[in-house]
Amino acid sequence: MEYQAPSSVTQIEHVIAQLYGGGGVNPQYQKSAQEFIHNFQKQTYAWDLAPQLLASQSVNSQFIGAHTFQVKISRDWNTLSLEKKQWLRRELLEWIVRLSNGANLVITKLCLALTAYAIQAVPDIWTNFIPEVFEMLHNGAIAVSTQNPGQSLFIELPLLEFLTVVPEEVMRGNMVGDKKAKVHQELTDSTQRVLSTLKTILSNYQAQQQKDILIKRKGLKCLQSWILYGVPFESLHPLIDDVINLFPFESTYDEATEVLIELLSSPRIAKYQDTVCEKILRCMTSEWAKNQITAAIHDGNEMVSRNLCRLITTFGDNFSDYVAIHFLRQDIIIYLEMMIMFIGFPGYFGQDQEISFLY
User: Fold this and answer.
1) Residues 62 and 159 in one domain
2) 151 vs 211, residue with greater confidence
3) Do 227 and 104 share a structural domain?
């Protein structure tokens, strides 16, 4: 289908509705709609139509608006004037605030777009971008609440989403030389503020209210992202107890386990072996953890204990010397018994698996 410039944002929204129309839409038309969106995102006027899509009531249109910003920043950054770049920063931050109570997939796309912007803008037109995002999101939320006293914004979630995707995108980015050094320095300079924020979030007890659970789960995912990025263990150490405290709650168990697995897998943790092993071993061999395994075996529920099994085996893979040295300790005995308990799962018969041989 030959691309024709849309006469209005309404036309683009119609194409988006067809693209995400579900199984009832002709596959050929969906392909044409996808090509239309791709061609639209190549046009200069897409910069101005993206905010109109974000203003739509349709989540799909909002998503395409955010995605358009992300694509344009990556592809057409050098075509923008300084004034347009400054406008773009304000626009992204304002939309994150305005849609902070909206769909998660839209917020994630906006945060990815803002991260792409930051990577492009450092150091020429934006420095200290992480502290500035902290301030601008909080100030934006206050301004909205002042103008609309009955409206309460859930600004912590988009802030945590941004702090989660930044280290992921920086690790994934194809940067070289001075640009790479400057961007990594931005993250290094902001590490303590990020971890201090996470410490406050993870240690703040609010009786497992729904909002508190969502924030803690997002905070744990954010912490995992910074561990993967390579934050020094000395900075992470104050948060270990907070993660362990969230381990025996079903609402935060999966995310807390993922963080502990990431910690145990880090080669930087070796010199802190005794401290870390003592804490995590106590957590793994608790009555709550043993009851989880027992119930899962009884119910045949493999999914429930999968993460705990991963945690236990990761501990053994990385600290086998520690296990051998303390072999007769009661907690190590319990740990080994728990490993053996996983044999209680029936597994899969050989005839149910496809096997191929290479000669």
Assistant:
1) no
2) 211
3) yes
Decide which of 231, 252, 277 is a domain's last residue. Answer: 231
User: How many domains would you assign to the chain?
Assistant: 2
pLDDT at 359 over 70: no
Q: Concatenated DSSP letters for 233-287? A: HHHHHHHHHHHHHHTT-TTTHHHHHHHHHHHHH-GGGGGGHHHHHHHHHHHHTSH
Lookup: tokens for 248: 């025996």
State whether 66 and 87 are in the same domain: no
Structure tokens at 335: 């740990």
**Two tokens at 317?**
């893979």
- For residue range 249-283, what is the model confidence (pLDDT) as tens digits? 989 999 999 999 999 998 888 888 888 889 999 99
Do residues 102 and 87 touch, judged by C-beta distance below 8 A? no
**Are 235 and 192 within 8 A, CB to CB?**
yes
Q: What is the C-alpha to C-alpha distance for residues 22 and 164, in angstroms, rounded to an integer? A: 31
Residue type, 248: P
Q: Tell whether 14 and 63 lie within a shared domain.
A: yes
Predicted local confidence at residue 315, as pLDDT: 94
* Closest residue by Cα to residue 217 from 175, 259, 155: 259
Reported as a pLDDT band with limits 50, 70 and 90, residue 299 is confident
Domain boundary among 73, 93, 120: 73
Range of the domain at 203: 80-231
Please report how many Cα atoms fall inside a 13 Å half-sphere around the Cα of residue 4, on the Cβ side: 5
